[in-house]
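Objective 1b. Sequence-to-structure analysis of ABC transporter ATP-binding protein.
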Amino acid sequence: MKVRIAFSVMSRVEEPVLLVDEVLAVGDKGFREKCYARIEEMLSEGRTLFFVSHSERDLRRFCTRGLYLEGGRLLLDGPIDEVVERYNADQA
């Protein structure tokens, strides 16, 4: 319930830059779908989204650029598909 309230409040703040950290990892399907719709609405308004997730599907859905970090170091900054592919290759 706390995550739902936090996301609802955060998504209505009129800031140009937002940080969403694993918020979609919790909650039921209905909650996630509402979050997806709100994130897409914010992106269409031209807002910047820093989206932290382990969901490859969500990263590809919302991001055009990715940062691959390991141990506090930046390993790659590039197009999201390239970053996800590099991450997957490193994990294999």
